[in-house]
Design brief:
binds NADP nicotinamide-adenine-dinucleotide phosphate, alpha/beta, 5 strands, Rossmann fold
């Protein structure tokens, strides 16, 4: 069992993910194995911060480990294929566009029930991109319900 101390004041003061005081929030003796899907604006920062804090972090994107920037791995995270990222971890973090969640849903369904799955996504409708439009959400379905289904 791993424990992350809460730092409510630090979190409240943070103006972006990059400001979050994650390095100070983690008990170094109780680090976790984390699998992170998505290394874009949000996932990259999470991967850097969590590995800098001492967690064992595996990161993956849709195009394969060789396409992940060295910068993402600069604090110790390891680039792996998507299937490897969710294996033998305490926590899976999804940091991919919400409309891409169905792509990884079958894989997520294979993780053990005790694995914590954290989803950073929110629905950002791009009027000029039909690819990312989610019909059910556009029709009024609550995002979290759509994700859970
Ligand atoms: N940006 C923000 O300020 C912000 C704030 C709060 C929440 N969010 C939410 O957090 C999520 C991530 O946002 P972002 O801005 O970091 O996105 P982003 O910069 O577009 O990065 C998306 C990442 O997801 C990966 N990805 C896409 N499909 C995948 C798949 N099937 N399997 C594995 N990886 C996949 C992409 O890899 P490839 O490049 O290889 O496709 C890329 O690394 C979104 O849902 C967003 O709405 C964003």
């Amino acid at each position: 069992m791993s424990v992350v101390r809460s730092d409510v004041a630090g979190v409240a003061q943070a103006r972006s993910v990059a400001d979050l005081p994650l390095d100070d929030m983690v008990d170094k003796d109780l680090c976790m194995n984390i699998g992170l899907l998505g290394v874009g604006a949000i996932g990259k920062t999470l991967g850097q911060k969590l590995s800098a804090a001492g967690h064992d972090v595996k990161v993956a994107n849709s195009r394969g480990p060789e396409t992940i920037d060295a910068d993402v791995l600069s604090t110790g995270a390891r680039a792996v294929p998507v299937t490897e990222a969710v294996k033998d971890v305490d926590v899976v973090i999804l940091s991919i566009p919400l409309a891409r969640i169905p792509d990884v849903a079958p894989l997520i369904a294979t993780v053990p029930s005790e694995t914590v799955v954290i989803d950073t996504s929110n629905y950002v409708p791009f009027p000029d991109s039909e690819l990312d439009a989610v019909e059910a959400i556009e029709a009024g379905q609550v995002e979290s319900l759509w994700v859970s289904e």
